[in-house]
Write a structure and sequence with these properties.
15-stranded mixed sheet, four-stranded mixed sheet, 26 strands
Length: 432
């Protein structure tokens, strides 16, 4: 770049080779009309009025055609040749850039190896420091994303996505998020140390402190919540939500864990679904739900729900006393649900003018909740018989027909006893 020296204030002596401005000696250069060198507070600026570029030093690159570049710092944008619209602030920021354009580098050694990459943004010491030709990356934070060939990556935080090489379309937000990722792509890590051990695993989503922190090659995992999925290493397609949820999975795959502290039955568990606080699934191909040890379970493809019934959990065990009399007092019915317009207006299912039926338009089989409650009260069933329940919200009454199974068994036993007695009487009458 050729330039004419223009000074604001001459405070030192001059010589044939230069002019001292505010105590800083400026390089003389060739005198011409294309550009000027000036100084502000002792810092020299080399500018070219024809291309809108300004530098704090006489760059080594042949920048005559480069336009609208701004460099502030020793060796910043030093190799620029034809790249346009670059901004570099800091010692050696963007120092190797030649033809790359629309890059922003703020901080010492930020984007310092970039040569032809475009539209990169690096803010912080060493941010994107080894990026050479890749484009459309954003790195904010100390040593964030020392990317080389990957593109469309975003890293925000100290050492976020630091070791990424050719991985693409990754997003890392938080200190050391996606720290060791190399070729893994399409990952999202939000939170300190989230996915920090990931190397080649792709399409993972980790939100929260230390989420999926042990994952290395596992793919298509989603973890949300502090420390969730933190032990998964090579497992795939796991979904965990909640604080410490699913942190017992290591190599297991296809698990769905929702709830604080909920987990699978074994580290390699597969196809387990867990819902609830501190619930542990009973095994592979099962859906376990509840709170803590008060859980229920249904096996994949099964039609019945199981609940804990281990004798080691029980005491004060007595024979059921209610049986046939209770069953006889119940009234099985068929019915249709009312139209939504005909429901009491204080119930949440009410909709003015609606011709739709509340549940469905079919004929249904079952019981009337109020009648069931009356039968239960008449037989003085102990607390815990949950065939009938009432909602706290709007007072709706519910019925759980399966709750009468033990009573049904008792009724059948009573009938069986009666049948045996009748058989005995008949045999006596026959003289057998």
């Amino acid at each position: 770049m050729t330039s004419t020296i223009k000074v604001d204030t001459i405070s030192e002596n001059t010589s044939a080779n230069g002019v001292a401005v505010d105590g800083v000696t400026l390089k003389d250069g060739n005198v011409g009309a294309t550009g000027t060198a000036t100084s502000v507070a002792g810092i020299p600026f080399y500018s070219d009025t024809t291309n809108g570029s300004i530098y704090t030093h006489d760059v080594s690159g042949t920048d005559d055609t480069a336009q609208h570049n701004t460099a502030y710092g020793i060796a910043a944008l030093d190799a620029i040749t034809t790249g346009d619209h670059n901004t570099a602030i800091g010692s050696e920021a963007g120092s190797a850039n030649t033809t790359g354009y629309s890059n922003v580098a703020v901080g010492s050694l930020a984007l310092d190896a970039n040569t032809t990459g475009v539209a990169n943004t690096a803010m912080g010491y060493g941010a994107l420091s080894t990026n050479t030709t890749s484009s459309n990356n954003t790195a904010v934070g100390y040593n964030s994303m020392t990317d080389t060939t990957g593109a469309h990556n975003t890293a925000i935080g100290q050492s976020a996505a630091k070791e990424t090489t050719s991985g693409v379309n990754n997003t890392a937000v938080g200190s050391q998020a996606l720290l060791k990722n190399t070729t893994g792509g399409y990952n999202v890590a939000v939170g300190q140390s989230s996915l920090d051990a990931n190397t080649t695993g792709g399409s993972n989503v980790a939100v929260g402190w230390n989420t999926l922190s042990a994952n290395t090659t596992g793919e298509n995992n989603t973890a949300t919540g502090l420390n969730s999925g933190s032990a998964i290493t090579t497992g795939n397609r796991n979904t965990v939500m909640g604080i410490n949820a699913g942190n017992g999975i290591t190599t297991g795959s296809n698990n769905i864990i929702i709830g604080n502290g909920s987990n699978v039955s074994a580290s390699g568990g597969a196809a387990q679904i867990v819902l609830g606080d501190s619930v542990t699934c009973v095994g592979n191909d099962n859906f376990t739900f509840g709170i803590g040890s008060s859980d229920s379970n249904i096996a994949a493809g099964a039609t019945s729900i199981t609940a804990p019934s281990d004798i080691r959990l029980k005491e004060d065990i007595q024979d059921e006393e209610v049986g046939l009399d209770f069953i006889n007092d119940l009234r099985p019915v068929t019915f249709q649900w009312k139209k939504e317009k005909d429901i009491p207006t204080d119930m949440k299912a009410y909709k003015e003018g609606s011709e739709e039926r509340t549940m469905n338009g079919k004929y249904n089989h079952g019981f009337i909740a109020q009648e069931v409650k009356e039968v239960i009260d008449n037989h003085n069933l102990k607390d815990g018989f949950d065939m009938w329940q009432e909602d706290e919200a709007d007072g709706r009454q519910r019925v759980a027909p399966s709750a009468i199974m033990s009573v049904m068994v008792k009724a059948v036993q009573e009938l069986s006893t009666t049948v045996d007695e009748l058989k005995a009487e008949i045999q006596t009458l026959k003289g057998e």
